[in-house]
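User: Predict the complex.
Assistant: Input components as received:
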Amino acid sequence: MGTLLHGVEGYMYPNEVELQWSVLIVLYPYITGLVAGAFILASLERVFKVEAVKPTYRLALLVALAFLLVAPLPLQLHLGHPERSFEMYLTPHRSSAMAMFGFVYLWYLMIVLLMEIWLDYRKNIVEWAETGTGLKRWIYRILTLGSRNVSAAALRVDDRVGYFITLIGVPSAFLLHGYVGFIFGSIKANPWWSTPLMPVVFIFSAMVSGIAAVLLLYMLTSKLRRTPIDMRCVDTIGRYLLYTFVIDFSLEMLDLVHRLYEADESLRALDFMVHTRLFFSQVILQIFIGTLLPIALLGLTQIVKLSEGARKAIYVAAGSVTMISIFAMRWNVVIGGQLFSKSFLGYTSYKMAFATREGLLPAIILVLLPFLILYVLVKLLPPWPKREAAV
Amino acid sequence: MEMTRREMLVKSGKFILLTSAAAAAWDYVLAGKAEAAPNYDMTKHWWAMVIDPEKCIGCGNCVRACETENDVPEGYFRTWIERYHVDDWDMEHPQVDSPNGGHDGFPEKYHDGGKTFFVPKMCNHCADSPCTQVCPVGATFITPDGVVLIDPKYCLGCRYCIQACPYGCRFFNPKTNTADKCTLCYHRITQGLTTACCEACPTQARVLADLKNPKDPIHAFLRTHSVQVLKPQMATHAKVFYKNLDGSVR
Amino acid sequence: MKDFLRSIEHLLRVVLLLALGVIGFLVVRRMVIPAEFGKYGHFRPAALDEIRAHPVKFAGRQACEACHSDQADVKSKGKHANLGCEACHGALARHAEDPGSLVPKLPDTAVLCARCHEANQAKPKSFPQVKTAEHSSGLACNTCHKPHDPRIGG
């Protein structure tokens, strides 16, 4: 009776019928992935001196911040006792892959992202603290931390420190997201998750999604601001998107080939799952539409000389399916890893509720929330020169 | 090989030295005066369980007793019974079922005379448990007497431990909003009683054992029988020992 | 030197803020961490006592025998000798503590006996099983069998 209700096929251990990690836990790595990816794109300009992507530098940082602020919310919503989450800071368990999350998060938020943004904007903040009016003025004043220190020497120091922070920021971004991969990859009980490739795949898919997100947002904001799109910039981003995508895809294929060839006890169960319950989200959505298609499109821009309009169209199309693809990838990892029994004898199914604490509605809200925050951030800390914004 | 044997000798030597006090407590238990047993000393016990699938009749007494004793919510199981049906040589693909965890017994399903048997399942109280390893805050832990417990007042409800258990022994309790699982009836065994499931089992298919008590028959049992733990490849040092377990069981 | 300090003055403010944050965290942590956390391992030792305080519902067979020696004696000689009383009568710790407060309902043999004895291919072959419908021809099991000593004719 209960099993029929839950769409069970074959044998699940009785406690396995219900999924533990819902769509919210799918969102979480999706969001931190965007953070890490956007940050790495920003650091391209700063650390690796890729001048072409400069127009997106500040935007990428703000995107990273907006998403990072939302990142813990799905986790909080999902916890049985959110009011106890502070225990992670009180008594972190050293052997737990999850315990360091709070610290890694704080490190990344406070030391890396906020510092880098602050240092980069400080000159403007001090300016705005004087020219601004009303509430905004007060916000800027607080943001100056009471220091109007914008002498040439101070700004030089800022630049050096900022560079240094970006330098530690890149491994930190890898840490933030690779770590999420490790949370899954280190579960030996679950063969779908348990692979040392998991953190690496997570990092590359993060870069893919972050780059695509910034690419899309840059094109969108340019359109909204009616400023011309810097083609050199988007071409470069498009190229990086292609490279990371190819690496990401190769890693995932390596994982797949390895599994197929090793054919251990879990293969039959997992193979069956991919051909049935995950067929749409994994094979169709993630691999064919979400990966091969954008790689082909982006590859085309490298091989054939296309008009600007065609390239823009390709970037928008490729970027959009990429966002879907990476979401599908997170879905397939998180949900897929819970659809089969650890006895390898059966399958359950995931039925998403709508307006419950862990349902579709909160998930949609949590996806939209970063854009709201981004809107506020962009108003507060315009990532592009003022005069253009006024147009 | 040599190492492990030496280790075994040293260990069993320790048992004999360590546990005369535990043995004294045990006498009270055998006399039916558990509550009179001297103060419980955690360092003098190391709890385990022996399960003999060949004795299990699938009556569901253990499942119901556990539910009653521990207020297990309906549809979730701290212990459950599986029915295996193995076709001839095809060990890799047994047919398994566990209607309502075996709570209401097993309506007859097979009539072919093939190999069919019951396997009681429960938390293995692993000495190297993957579930306690992953708990981010220390809300699940192994006690000094070898029982894996959950602190329901400290658990966040993140469910990482449920994912980490290879045996499906944990569940999310919708009443407490925390992870939940078998406590090996810690409230009973620490006052000299056996677990509720063992108490209710009509055939002694499961027997509580104290590995630090030299008088416990488990020592003779383990020495003279072929025993197995579930999923030994998980290297969890499980402490629920199955006698003559069929290779198809996972 | 002074020039240099002036040029990093704003950074010192950040460092100060962060330091305050860290100190504040350490102070709060000290205040709210559960008592004796980590005494026996990475957990709250009070949890052990809380778990041990859970009420016992199955009294255990020895407890029953103290008062019901009649049934215990009968049972100990029969084929059900190894069964605990509560395997059939259910959890009765409350009754054992105070017999007056809860007088147990006697089990219905039609349901009770079949749970264990209904024939099933998965049961061990050595276990006595009957197809109850055919075997009892609708009569209650205890018309012929005594539950505490079930074998007919010794």
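The CA atoms of residues 3 and 43 of chain C lie 52 Å apart.
Let me know if you want any component modeled separately.
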